[in-house]
Amino acid sequence: MSNFIKNANWRYATKKFDATKKVSEEDLNTLKEAVRLSASSYGLQPYKVIFVENPEVRAQLQPVAWGQSQITEASHLLVFANITDFGDAQIDAHINNIAVTRGLPADALQGYGDFMKSKILSLPVENRNVWTSKQTYIALTNLLNAAAELGIDVTPMEGFEADKFNEILGLEALGLNASLVATIGYRHAEDATQNYAKVRKSNEELFINL
């Protein structure tokens, strides 16, 4: 736990990346696994994570991400995209995955599948989309913590035009919506932000004991 707290103090939202430094394939695979193992409601993982590698596409995205330099300078750009109109097909696929992974007959899981459908499909589409979008934040947290363990910087971003990202990346046709953006790489020596003291609420202000 001492390393976790140390890493949490070390990380910050990097403002300027060193464009000459790239995250290794080995570390990238570790980060992918950390995201894959993230907790999610019912274990459904109602999202996709898109690695935007094409520099021309990243250049198109930068203006609709408030012109932030991290979009093009970081080693990798990740877009967390929630599944829109999440429904029967996704739940059935999850039930099948459970059955295959655990060696269970699908029929034995029908009750669980029906339970999930009763809770999720009763929500209006707009509410379901908000719910799936919230799930991406959990996955992002795993990315932040795993990256800090590896000494890799991450900048989580909400400062972008989701509709423009959807358009440029063709996400609507895939039933997806850009929910969160994260850039990963290594901080530039000239990024003065890395030397700022971390500002957080005190325990007394943040926590309530009842």
Automatic annotation (TrEMBL):
InterPro entries: NfsB-like, Nitroreductase, Nitroreductase-like. Transmembrane segments: none annotated. Signal peptide: none annotated. One of its GO terms (molecular function) is oxidoreductase activity. Its cofactor is FMN. It comes from the Bacteria. This is NAD(P)H-dependent oxidoreductase. Residues 10-186 form the Nitroreductase domain. Belongs to the nitroreductase family. PANTHER family: NAD(P)H NITROREDUCTASE YDGI-RELATED (PTHR43673), NITROREDUCTASE (PTHR43673:SF2). Keywords: Flavoprotein, FMN, NADP, Oxidoreductase.
